């Protein structure tokens, strides 16, 4: 993995903090209207998509296609939530589930590609597995109620945010090691 990838560790840290904040917000207002949840989800998905697109378009980043794919998935999910906030209803559950499953698969694939490098970033794969499992649970239990779904989304966001922060710290340490070794 080139040092330019490690030098972008702070992007993963920001992504982690935003995910944790989003998760905590869902716990603070679990009975909020569904429209607010749709808007919050839309913002999170769009920011996540933009984050991946920004990573993809920096010079020297490997696996640009996977980052672009996850970025487009996030943007699409967010835009659907914005343009159809009142009609998404149960469909939002399936949008969230599909986004989580597709993002999870993309991250798992990215982890396998990163396994070809010297770093073996298993945390990327773990975040993908969490997303995949989260999406499957939502597909299996769509009528669980908006409060339960908000709490599941909050739990997923907090856990994923913690994983992203862990990844950011590992990448930061790797970047420092590369700088010290002159790579």
UniProtKB/TrEMBL annotation:
Q: Which UniProt keywords apply?
A: Membrane, Transmembrane, Transmembrane helix
**Membrane-spanning parts:** 9-28, 34-53, 65-84, 122-143, 149-169
| Any one Pfam family match given in the protein's UniProt record, by short name | DUF308
GO cellular component, as recorded: plasma membrane
Q: Which InterPro entries match?
A: Acid_resist_chaperone_HdeD (IPR052712), DUF308_memb (IPR005325)
Going by the entry's taxonomy, the superkingdom of the source organism is recorded as: Bacteria
Protein name stated in the entry: Putative membrane protein
Q: Could you tell me which species this protein originates from?
A: Acidobacterium capsulatum (strain ATCC 51196 / DSM 11244 / BCRC 80197 / JCM 7670 / NBRC 15755 / NCIMB 13165 / 161)
């Amino acid at each position: 993995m080139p040092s330019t990838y490690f030098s972008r560790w702070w992007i993963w840290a920001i992504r982690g903090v935003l995910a944790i904040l989003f998760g905590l917000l869902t716990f603070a207002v679990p009975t909020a209207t569904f429209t607010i949840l749709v808007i919050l989800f839309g913002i999170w998905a769009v920011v996540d998509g933009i984050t991946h697109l920004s990573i993809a378009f920096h010079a020297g980043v490997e696996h640009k296609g996977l980052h672009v794919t996850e970025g487009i998935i996030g943007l699409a999910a967010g835009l659907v939530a914005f343009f159809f906030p009142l009609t998404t209803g149960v469909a939002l559950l399936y949008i969230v589930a599909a986004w989580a499953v597709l993002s999870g698969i993309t991250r798992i694939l990215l982890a396998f590609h990163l396994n070809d490098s010297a770093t073996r970033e298993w945390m990327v794969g773990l975040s993908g597995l969490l997303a995949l499992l989260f999406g499957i649970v939502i597909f299996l239990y769509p009528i669980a109620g908006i409060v339960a779904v908000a709490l599941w989304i909050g739990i997923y966001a907090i856990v994923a945010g913690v994983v992203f922060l862990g990844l950011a710290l590992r990448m930061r340490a790797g970047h420092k090691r590369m700088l010290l070794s002159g790579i």
